Amino acid sequence: MIIKPKIRSNVFTNCHPLGQEQFILNLITEAKKQKPIGSKKNVLIIGGSSGYGLASRIALAFGMNANTINVSFESGPKGKRTGTAGYWNNIFFQKHTKNYPQTDKDFNGDAFSKAMKNDVIDYIKTHFGKLDLIIYSLASGARKDETTGALVRSAIKTIGTPAKGHTIELAKEEVTPLNVEAASSEEIKNTVFVMGGSDWQTWLENLSQNDCLNDGVKTISYTYIGGETTDAIYRNGTIGQAKEDLEKTAGKLNQLLKEKHRGEALISSSKAVVTKASVFIPQMPIYVACLFDVMMEKGIHESILAHKYRLFKDMVYGTKAIKDDDGFLRVDHREMQSDVQHATKTLMAAYTNDKIFTLKGTKAMLDDFYHMNGFGFSNIDYDQPVDMDALQQLKLN
After folding, report:
1. Domain membership flag for residue 142
2. How many domains, the chain?
3. What CATH number corresponds to the domain at position 108?
4. Catalytic residue among 234, 287, 351, 370
5. In the annotation, is 382 catalytic?
6. Could you tell me the pTM of the whole model?
7. Could you tell me which residues come within 8 angstroms of residue 304 by beta carbon, excluding any fewer than 6 positions away?
8. What is the mean pLDDT, run by run of 10 residues, along the chain of 397 residues?
């Protein structure tokens, strides 16, 4: 099978398996260059097949030889379908960690479901030992309500008034007009149900009740705050409502873990990066391209792996935590510097057309976008067929 990129609405509908292996190898190579994080931990990552979750898994696996369990919902190859990028990320992560002194386990299925929670808990109790860290990094557009059986979908919309502006059509590399409608009250409620904190809370309560948590356990989830240029669509929109619910949940979990396990629950505000979720959000591609350009110019740009490595080494298990008044870990402090935000806003205003593709930041964003789906690597011949039958012999533990 010869595999070429297929993109619809800033989402890849395919991936290149050999490129996914190169993507994983690059992350591992970068992780190996970092200094050790701390003592070995048992880690559960809910949503660890891509984005922040995958970067966290690799940072911890190579920074402290952590034992990791990942729960993610990915599709394998079938017929002319290549399988999802996350599916191959899991495959190749295990392939390239099997000779290291750690245990890595993947569960492929619905992390929201009671059945999946029970399966993971059974595995922990039988094979893994108690957990030291739980990372909640789930990115999903839908969640089944197990009470009613209905599939509830989130909506990326504004609240109150519609928004107008521009975004980047990544497949065509064009700047296009942006119109985002205001959400209904039902859409706001549904987005909070899918993307808020209730599932994170259920996971931790179940793990605690089943004696799966070590003394001093930590749990962390990722939020994004951003600046005024993304407020209308992100922080003040439906996603922002879900993030606020997630952040409030951290307070409840902190009390639970502190009382029962001498542990803590943390929220980390992450830097804007290229993930399958971020490029789907209207206007975010323009903001990310301009932000990357500014931060590269100032010498403070970070890869997603370096960003998460710094979170765990300096803040979660180190002595250099930067916290705001809400107690959130502000790993995004470089992005949020006033000079960075001002320069980014100025660049966004000046590059409202296809001139944006002349920026180094745009090229870096596009490279990340293609690389995370296995495309754009110079050492891979994309005109050569891929032996999918041979690749399908690789299995997950």
Report:
1. yes
2. 1
3. 3.40.50.720
4. 234
5. no
6. 0.96
7. 51, 52, 55, 273, 274, 275, 368
8. 92 96 98 94 97 97 96 94 97 94 95 98 95 96 95 94 85 86 96 97 98 98 89 89 96 97 97 83 88 97 96 96 96 97 94 90 95 97 95 85
